[in-house]
Amino acid sequence: MGIDTRPEPTRWHERMYQAVLERYWKQGEGSGSEELREPASGEAATEPFGLLLVRFNPTDDETMRRVVTRIRDELELEPEPAGALSAIYDPAGRQAALLLFGFTRSRTHYAALMAKRMLLELAPGPFALLAAEAGAQPERDPLFFERLADRFAAQPEQSGLTVWNEPDPADESTGQSLLLVDGDEDMRRFLRQRFSRKGYRVLDAGDGPEGLRLFREMKPDVVVTDLNVAGIDGYHLLTLLQEEDPEARSKIVVFTDIRTEDAVRRCLGLGADDYLTRPFSPVELEERIEKLLA
Fold first, then answer.
1. Bridge pairing between strands 274-277 and 251-256
2. Number of neighbouring beta carbons within 10 Å of residue 176
3. Which stretches within 7-136 are classed as H helix?
4. Higher pLDDT pick, 207 / 153
5. What local confidence, expressed as pLDDT, does residue 136 receive?
6. Could you identify which of 88, 119, 206, 253 might form a hypothetical disulfide with 97, taking C-beta atoms 3.0 to 4.6 angstroms apart as the criterion?
7. CA quadruple 113, 114, 120, 125: dihedral positive or negative?
């Protein structure tokens, strides 16, 4: 198995979100408010904007910047802070996000087609190009930029253009239920928001006894549990879940920072269907759960 050399998207997507927040605050200067205000009826919280994400293997540190500058010039855009374009580069210099403030969906698509033509001319090899439109109130939704970065990280470099429209959770609700058992409140919140947007009905517990109680009430389709949970030892919790569900109707994914072969073997022997270690890819966790439920 080869080593995945694609850049980690986390810091990159946080910088995208920060650029949007800064733009929003500039729009609100002079209002005297330091809070994110709710838009009035019929008013958009921010101006519409599109995004172009570009990735290729540059020949030097300046190749990506030269390509972005060429795209900006062809589109006759001025860079931030005065103009409509904000370019966010990943630390490795292999990819860039172009935030096209004021661009509608159709104008973003046109810009993407122009960028593809220039990349075919200028990129030193295969490239990946993705166009997207920001959702409603993106300044309130940092997870949008993470989902976008995750989607782009999975896109192969085939010198083509992908137009990504984030699906509406109401349109693709799975109707399936998921129980999270994890002592880390931030992790539970992150995964709860992520899986809720995928259409799952999500409940979460911060310790083993609460997880067992919710399991008995909910009879979930899938359980995602850490081994390091309070109240009940993680291995004992697996034993109790198996006793509650002898026909193994609920799929169980162990999601932990314990990386030993003995832990994996014990968990699978106690009825776990999959085992994933941290740090992790949210996309990989979603894909594994989808396979178990297919």
1. parallel
2. 18
3. 10-28, 63-74, 105-122
4. 207
5. 62
6. 88
7. negative
C-alpha–C-alpha distance, residues 232 and 21, integer Å:
42
All domains of the chain in start order, with CATH: 12-21+44-164 (3.30.70.270), 177-293 (3.40.50.2300)
Containing 195, the helix (H) or strand (E) segment is helix 185-197
- The position carrying tokens 């067992």 is 212
Question: How far is Cα 35 from Cα 56, in angstroms, rounded to an integer?
Answer: 39
E-strand stretches of 165-218? 177-181, 201-205
Length of the chain equals 294
Question: With 80 as the cut, is the pLDDT of residue 92 above it?
Answer: no
- Pick the closest to residue 237 from 282, 177, 182 (CA basis): 182
Q: Is 196 helix (H, G, I), strand (E, B) or coil?
A: helix
Look up residue 248 and give its two tokens.
Answer: 């193994």
Could you tell me how far CA 277 lies from the centroid of its own chain? 18
Prediction pTM value: 0.53
User: Measured in Å, how far apart are the chain's first and last C-alpha atoms?
Assistant: 26
pLDDT category, 135, cuts 50, 70, 90? low
Tell whether the model's pLDDT for residue 12 goes beyond 50: yes
| 59 within 8 A of 139, measured Cβ to Cβ | no
CB-based burial, 122-156: b 16+ in 10 Å, e otherwise: ebeeebbbbbbbbeeebbebbebbbbbbbbbbebe
In the predicted structure, residue 56 carries a pLDDT above the cut 80: yes
Where in the chain does DSSP place strands (E)? 49-56, 85-89, 95-101, 127-133, 160-164, 177-181, 201-205, 222-225, 251-256, 274-277
What pLDDT, on a 0 to 100 scale, did the predictor assign at position 154?
A: 82
Task: Using alpha carbons only, give the angle 122, 2, 123 rounded to the nearest 5 degrees.
Answer: 0
Q: Which residue has the higher pLDDT, 32 or 12?
A: 12
